[in-house]
Design goal:
Order of helices and strands: EEEEEEHEHHEE
Helix content: 25-40%
Radius of gyration: 18 Å
Shape: globular
Structural class: alpha+beta
Strand order of the largest sheet: 3-4-5-6
Distance between the termini: 70 Å
């Protein structure tokens, strides 16, 4: 019987851990982020609201992940994350991507809203009108 090899530390990587790597810049980032009842997971790109999966395409879920992580996202960042045009720099298509995410959040009854910030992009806010009162 052969002796067991000495313990070797695994290579430093973020695969399989609580961190992942940004596709754009290579910086480490958390795989799971939360903002209120929204939970976004980076790999695989998914979004949950109160443990209910929001049916998003991967490119939409990437944008939603950034919104949940930072609470806001710029038009340029949406164009980088989910390029829809050949040059990847069409602002009107970024607006379409956000409107698709808005519609899907509204459809499941999420108590958050994506609002426009003039000259920058969008912000994720909680809507007080949809909060359930306990009687």
């Amino acid at each position: 019987m052969r002796p067991l090899p000495a313990f070797v530390w695994p290579p430093l990587s973020y695969a399989g851990s609580w961190m992942s790597v940004c596709d754009c810049c290579g910086a480490p980032r958390q795989k799971r982020v939360e903002r209120g009842s929204l939970v976004a997971i980076d790999e695989p790109h998914t979004l949950f609201w109160r443990d209910q999966r929001v049916p998003l395409y991967a490119s939409e879920a990437q944008v939603a992940y950034e919104l949940v992580r930072y609470g806001q996202i710029s038009i340029e960042r949406v164009c980088l994350l989910a390029p829809l045009a050949e040059d990847g720099n069409d602002n009107s298509l970024a607006h379409v991507r956000i409107s698709q995410i808005r519609a899907k959040l509204r459809r499941i009854g999420a108590d958050v809203q994506i609002v426009s910030r003039r000259g920058y992009g969008w912000e994720l806010v909680r809507t007080a009108s949809m909060a359930v009162s306990a009687n």
